[in-house]
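Entry 14. Structure prediction run on the chain below.
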Amino acid sequence: MNDNAESEAEAREELEAIRATIEGLPNALSVAARLSEGAIEDTTLDVRSLHLVRLAALAASGAPPVAFSINLEAMEDHVSAEDVESTLVAIAPIIGTARYLSAVRSIVDD
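Output returned:
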């Protein structure tokens, strides 16, 4: 196996471990949802902008793939694929290549 294939296999194993851990926590996803419940009421941003800001924060913080999955599911009716791409491209010079590519991979590999 080459280094790239090994890295991909390790990334998949890590993602599966995260998912298994979350599945083992009875309220993990509901806790994450509750943390986000008041976000719309607590800001003057419209829903689309709020989702894009949250996407940028996920990328900037190096969030794990499962965080992108959860948030992208919530964004589905409000944000287009072009919005996601444009947001990540806009923040890439600030967050750096590694975080940018990590975010892209988290989204694409889901």
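The mean pLDDT is 81.
Filed with the rest of this week's runs.
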